[in-house]
Write a structure and sequence with these properties.
The complex is a heterodimer.
Chain A: H1 2-19, H2 26-50, E1 54-56, H3 60-87, H4 91-114, E2 118-120, H5 126-151
Antiparallel strand pairs in A: 1-2
Chain B: H1 9-27, H2 34-55, E1 64-65, H3 73-80, H4 82-96, H5 101-123, E2 127-128, H6 135-163
Antiparallel strand pairs in B: 1-2
The chains are: A mainly alpha, B mainly alpha.
């Protein structure tokens, strides 16, 4: 079931993302992809390997499902968020979109748990997930702003 | 998160390697536009982290990095070390303007050099291969990842030349 759900979402996201007009330059997308991967890997390595608060399924198929979340769903959603953030004018709408995306990321995490892709330990709280995704979104936004500032000097965005 | 389980040969190897390779990278004459340099630096660590997540942890779990099975700060240094290497790989490739079969020979030479560097790192316990990984697998991995890097180089170059500003530096 997890395979059907997350791989379908991944393929549909990839397809939709590649056939629609993009507001992010290729270089920005590369930087964001690597950065989001860095944040997620470090989160898992620290919370999973060191503190045993999150555990990934040891079944290889479920592991591949998690990989689709980590390397496709989350980075593309993050890029969609950044594009929306750039296209909107009003600050309160930007904030609202941020909150919605954070809720979406937390939702994906708990859907993955429900479908057996990962499991949280008893000491884990939903607020830790919220804090993690708030941190992820804000830091990625900061990096994006910086990269866009640099990229605009050399390429047309 | 620990800095390291015990501060010994592998940590010193990582520090010295990082300082040497970063100094070499910084001393090189500027060749790429700033945004391209950032992209070329990041892609090395990106590939390293992406593949380590597949091969270095359960269910595959074929090797360990540094002293313990747990994540430590020096594991992060190990991944960051791939950044200047990827930059140098593409810098020299761009400098020599290789074409045809020379590209394959270039990738082969870098793969052999990477396996040799890695073998030295294995001796100093930066990588621990007791779980089933070996240098043969690394060689295949380096061949594949460096081939990807060559494709990546051309993609980035085409994209830059297509979208660069009038005032931006040329990259022929």
């Amino acid at each position: 079931m997890a395979l059907v759900v997350f791989c379908s979402i991944s393929v549909l996201l990839l397809l939709s993302y590649s056939v629609t007009k993009r507001r992010l330059h290729l270089f920005e997308r590369i930087v964001i992809w690597v950065f989001v991967l860095l944040l997620q890997n470090n989160f898992f390595w620290m919370m999973g390997l060191n503190y045993k608060l999150v555990e990934l399924s040891h079944h290889w198929l479920q592991f591949l499902v998690y990989d689709s979340i980590r390397s496709i769903i989350v980075p593309i959603c993050m890029m969609l968020y950044l594009e929306l953030h750039e296209s909107l004018d009003r600050k309160w709408i930007k904030g609202l979109i941020g909150v919605l995306f954070i809720m979406g990321f937390v939702g994906i995490e708990y859907l993955a748990e429900w479908l057996g892709v990962l499991s949280h330990s008893g000491n884990w709280s939903v607020w830790y997930s919220v804090a993690n995704w708030v941190f992820n979104v804000l830091l990625t936004l900061l990096v994006f702003k910086r990269i866009r500032f640099m990229a605009r000097k050399e390429v047309t965005i | 998160m620990k800095l390291a389980e015990s501060f010994d040969a592998n940590e010193w190897f990582l520090i010295i390697s990082f300082l040497v390779i970063t100094t070499v990278t910084l001393m090189l004459p500027r060749r790429f536009p700033t945004i391209i340099s950032i992209v070329f630096l990041l892609i090395g660590s990106g590939i390293a982290m992406y593949s380590d997540f597949h091969f270095g942890i359960p269910p595959v779990d074929l090797y360990d990095i540094n002293d313990s099975k747990q994540y430590e700060w020096f594991d992060l240094v190990t991944f960051v070390l791939y950044s200047p290497f990827s930059y140098l790989f593409l810098y020299v490739f761009d400098r020599w303007r290789l074409e045809g079969l020379k590209i394959s020979l270039y990738v082969l030479a870098w793969s052999i050099a990477a396996v040799a560097f890695e073998a030295f790192a294995v001796r100093l316990h930066v990588y621990n291969f007791q779980k089933g990984w070996n240098s043969g697998y690394s060689f295949v991995f380096y061949l594949a990842s460096q081939t990807f890097m060559i494709w990546f180089y051309y993609t980035v170059k085409n994209n830059y030349n297509r979208t660069k500003k009038e005032t931006s530096p040329d990259w022929a």
